Amino acid sequence: MAKSDKKKRHQNGKKYTTKKNRNVIAQQIRSTKSQTNAIFSLTSSFNPNPKTLGPFSDRQRILVVGDGDFSFSLSLAVFLGGKNLVATCYDSKLELKEKYSSALLNCDALETAGAQVHFDVNATCLDKEKWLHVAQRFDAIVFNFPHLGGSTEADVANNQKLLRGFFNSTRQYLHPTRGQVLVSLRNTLFYNRWKIQEQAAVNGFQLKRTEVFDASIYAGYEPQRTHPASFRGEPPSTNGAHYFIFSLDKSIIEMDSGQKSFQPSENVEQARGSATKQGVLETKMAAMSTKMTCQPCGLTFRDVKKYNGHINSAKHAKKVKALKKKH
């Protein structure tokens, strides 16, 4: 009997401890939300003038895709406000909870700030998202450190395909005149082999500029790995990272004038062979399906490298300068 009573007391003690822990966690969440509300209230009332954070402004309608634990989106919301912000991640809500401990707290804070939060969003298939409307286009679409994992030749080809799919997917949701797509990548040999400018060009984008990605200005931002369980130790580095900032290339004339939106050739998706050859072949075939025209010079190109080389040439600059003087 004594043993039975002791066992019951032990079980009751465990239940009490579990309940106590839950209460502590709930209290922490309430405290975090309270602090978040105070921060948002302070930032929204402190300065009525336009606010900027890196390349972003509170006057922009911003879509963030592939945000691992939503900490980047939250850093934007804290400084710029959340009413014009839509934050998304690739994982489902359950997967997110299992992978990143603070992710759901960040989601709560984002919603408190007035931002929209969406899970299970594939950045290469945005047209499948029913909540997205072409009528409400974005001024900035952001994809920070896209990476499918791995470091082999096959992974290079896969990440090139990821970028092509992303650029193609964003076109119809980007504001045609002031819209820009921002992709952050580290400046290393591996990432440089992705040839981001080529992947953008075959989908009708041109590079406006690059700028240093300074993670320190995004308070609370914590870069995350695609598969955190596979790694131990420090999070991925952002040293030497840059933002590649693209806009729609208005000088591109599509082969099919009746086409409503820019689509790479279907042959691109049908290319087969080894992983390395596939990535190269897809890029070349997509480039062949696009007719790129420099309107000031009256020249047409089918090769992305030649087109980019011409745009950056002294001949092109001289022609543009002469045309500006005439007007």
TrEMBL record:
Biological processes annotated in GO: rRNA base methylation
Record domain C2H2-type: where: 294-316
Region described as Disordered: spans on this chain: 1-20
GO cellular component: cytoplasm
One MF term in the entry's GO annotations: rRNA (uridine-N3-)-methyltransferase activity
Matches recorded under PANTHER family: FERREDOXIN-FOLD ANTICODON-BINDING DOMAIN-CONTAINING PROTEIN 1, PHENYLALANYL-TRNA SYNTHETASE
Protein name, per record: C2H2-type domain-containing protein
